[in-house]
Description:
The protein is an all-beta fold and about 325 residues long.
Amino acid sequence: MAVGDLNGDGNPDLAVANFWTSMLSVLLGNGDGTFAPKVDYATGSRPMSVVVRDLSGDGAPDVALADSTGGTVSVHLGNGDGIFAPNVQYVTGGSPASVAVDDLNGDGKPDLALTTGTGNSVAVLLGEGDGTFAPRVDHATGSNAAAVAVGDFNRDGKPDLASANSTGSTASVLRNTTAGSAVVAPGALVSATQPQGTLGASQEVQMTVTGAFPIRVSHVSVIGTQRSDFLISSDGCGGRTVAGAAVCTIEVRFAPSATGARAATLRIDSDAASTPDSIGLSGTGGAFPTGPTGPAGLVGPGGATGPAGPGGALAAGPAGPAGPAGPGGDTGHH
C-alpha cells in the first residue's frame, strides 16, 4: 500500500496492490479519514508492492507495482484527477516482491529498483523522464532478495540500495558507483602578448556539475614543460566537493619567462566521468619592457686651475712731456 494525493484535492488517497485479484485499487480520501469506494485497474500477475511518484514529469502522481509472479513491474500513469491509464509492463525477471523509486543515476529523472526474489538480485530500470523505462540492469544480492530500500549509506550524495534476503538471513548493500558529470569551459585560454617577466590579467575556467550528484575535485594543476609560465592565481575547485548543479571557478595568469610562443595545460582531476579534464593554455612572451628615462645626474666638481701663461716682453714707453719750470731761488746778500 502507498499514500499520495492522487487527485490533487489536498486529501491523502490510497493505492493498494491486490495480490489475489492482480489489481491496483485506488481509494480517494475524503479528508476526514474516510475513503470513497475503490476503483480497480488491472496490473501484472500477483502484485505485492506499490509506490506512488511522478514518473512522467507532468506533476501528476503515477503508480508502479512489483508483479511477483509475472516477473514484471506495472506502471500506471496518472491524469492528476485520480484516474490512471492502463498498465505498461517492464520485465524485471525473477519474482519481484518490492519496488522503490529514486534518481539512481543523477540525471534528475526517477528510476525504479525491484528485488527479483529467486533471481537473487535487484533490478534497476532507469527512467526516461516521460514515464517510460530502459531495460533492467541486474545487481547481485544475497539469496532470495525480498525487500529493497534506498538511502545514502556512505554519505557521498548518491542514493545506495539495500535488500533484505529472505532465505540467506542477510542484507545486501549495493553502493552507488555512478560517476557524476561536469562540463568545463572554456576549452582553452589564449593570453595576449605579455612582456617577459611581467604578470598578465586573470582568466577564468569554470567547472559546472551537470547532474544531481556531487563531484569531488581532488587536484588542479598546470602541466607541461612551460608550466611555470602559467600561474593558478585562484582555485575554487581543488580539494572540494562541488554540489549537483553547482559551479566552481579557477583563475589563471600568464607570466612568460621568455619571448615567443608559450604553452601548457590546466588539468582538473576529479571523480567525474570526464576526468581528467584538460584546458589548453597559450600566450606569447614579448620583449622586456623599456623603463622610463632616469633623472639627470649631479653636476661634477670644477676642474683644477691651469698653469700660468708665459710673461710678456718689456717695452719702453714713449717719453712724457716736459714738466713746468720750477720757481726761482732767493737773491743773495752782500
